[in-house]
Amino acid sequence: MTDRPADDQGKTGSPADLMPEELPYRVPTGALGGLCILAVAAACLVVLNQKLNLGFFIGKTLIDTRYLYLLATLLLPIVFLAYPAHAAAPMRRVPWYDLAMAATAVAVGTGFIWTAEAALTQGWEYSAPKAAIAASAVLSLLILEALRRTGGTVLTAIVLVFALYPAVASIMPGPIRGLAQPLPDAIAYHIISSESAFGIPMRAFGEIVVGFIVFGVALNYTGGGKFFNDVAFALVGRYRGGAAQVGVISSALQGSISGSVISNVISSGVVTIPAMKRTGFASDYAGGVEAVASTGAVLMPPVMGSTAFVMASFLGKPYAEIAMAAAIPGLLFYFGLMVQIDAYAARRRLSGMLAAELPRFAEVLREGWLYIAVFAVLIYFMLSEQQEAMAPFYATGLLLVINQILPRHRLTRAGFVAMLQALGRELASLVAVLTGVGFIVGAFSMTGLSGTLANDLVYLAGDKPIVLLFMGAVASFIFGMGMTVTACYIFLAIVLAPPLVKAGMDPLAIHLFILYWGMISFITPPVALAAFAAAPIAKTGHFRIGWQAMKLGTIIYIVPFVFALNPALVLRGTWDAIAIALGSAFAGVFLVASAIQGYIAGAGIMPATPAGWCGRLLILAGGIALLLPGGEALGRLGLDLLGAAAAAAGFAVLRLLPPRPAVV
């Protein structure tokens, strides 16, 4: 085992440069490293066999549970080999206890693979043999330890509480009382049933997510990150505030594929944050731009990270429908961010970057056309052919073939090995999180608690869905502070989504709502993990970046309420209603974002005088009116007229004021 080489940083093609990670890790070498790479390759082949029915396993049928056991058996041991147990653990060698846990995971997993058919036909999830119960207990402990290493202690504690909940459900107070199960039966159910550790989250992993993780890693290791940055610099770098707009575009492109906020901040921010500072942006503002842009990227189609695929499994809808619905909220978010950046730059008369600093767009396309072709293949198979599971594999195959033809980013043998190592870490950590969070799903399934909570929450909210939405926003934010995005979404999809849907809200809009609010903790102090990641690059305090990120990300706090109450913004309804809602929403976002930054195109700076504040508040009120959904008292047309009138009055007030100098 070796540490990451210190000289990897900043070199094109190096693992640390191309695939930055959030956790310290070891890199396997020698025979152990070879076994890890074989396991990753085998996992990918198993997925392809399952999707394409290649017939690798002659005489054996890979039923769903056997298939998922096989993936976990191949990938879960990598967690113990790659991620150290604690900060003081050896990084250059694997301790004996990590080797023991990896070997035990292989042995126990193999046992479940072998007995998967018997477990299904004989109903072991309700009446398992003692040996199966003991094996379930061992595998449960291994999953919890793997979760602790990859998801953190807080998430592991939450999962453990829920995993044990079925044993004491009958003695809990009224709202959370459920049907109790003996502890041994509960443990067996968690591992053997198709409703817990190997339930919806892992099924989404095995059916769709693996391919997109493969594609994301391959894209980064073949120079995709540099291409996205260069495209953004070439497109908008020369305009007012261009360096910050570059950060927005490049982060949106990269983060949509990687699905990791922290990795996105690091990989994009090392280029964009210094460029912003060179063109006059304050350090905390530059860090805030990158933090917000990287957070929003996980909410932006076409890929949206792994959580969107789990959502598709929960809703029983094709991924393409999820991506289409998420497109408008994502565009509203980024539109608001870009308006704020432009207003900030205008107030301070910040210019764009020098032409000599920028790549030429034609040259960027000539060198990186392969990425456009690969994306075209990906989107074609996802949307036109509706092959969400295979689309990333086809795109990855094309990417690797073209990559070997073109010399600039051609993968060497060492680069290919490094790519497989990074892929193994990505897949293994996701298996640990998804199987661990699956315990929460299993606990609710075993005890029937989800239905009880849904009824209680609806009763508490009365006939006011907005109250439920506020409860959901607070719960999503709190759980988002202690969980990964996917874990937070899964938990809230079980607990919170049913009562909101029962209250009459659109299911797809509600699932997107909890996904958005689960992401908000990344930019909101005191947690603000994206701000923590940006702070060392921006060379300023993370709290300063966090407060700027909250201001820049204001739209992300508002938009989820807007589309939850007006599903036309997630493309639910007639085309004329959707068109009207879109026009109102974009106009509203423009006004709100301009008012927040104190500058609006056509009227200029909003001064800190009584008249200036009056104009500013009128424009803000007009924007909010345009964003609000129509109701019984005032319909869509009435709100649009009210918003337009308020904005026009505010604009007139500002135009009558004397010209203001730029803010220094």
Describe, in short, the structure shown.
The protein has 664 residues and is mainly alpha-helical. 71% of the residues lie in helices and 1% in strands.
Keywords:
single chain; 664 residues; mainly alpha; two-stranded antiparallel ribbon; 71% helix; disordered N terminus
Task: Describe the 3D structure.
The N and C termini lie far apart (52 Å). This protein is mainly alpha-helical and 664 residues long. β1 (599-600) and β2 form a beta hairpin. The chain has 28 helices and 2 strands. A two-stranded antiparallel ribbon has the order 1-2. The chain is 71% helix and 1% strand. It has a domain at 573-664.
Q: Which percent range fits the helix content?
A: over 70%
Estimated share of beta-strand residues: under 5%
What integer value in Å does the Rg equal?
26 Å
Number of strands: 2
User: What is the succession of H and E elements?
Assistant: HHHHHHHHHHHHHHHHHHHHHHHHHHEEHH
Rounded to the nearest angstrom, the distance between the terminal CA atoms is 52 Å
Strand line-up across the major sheet: 1-2
List unreliable stretches of 5+ residues: 1-21
| Tally of individual helices | 28
Category from helices, strands and their pairing: mainly alpha
Q: Quick one: overall form?
A: globular
Mean pLDDT: 84
Largest sheet: 2 strands, antiparallel
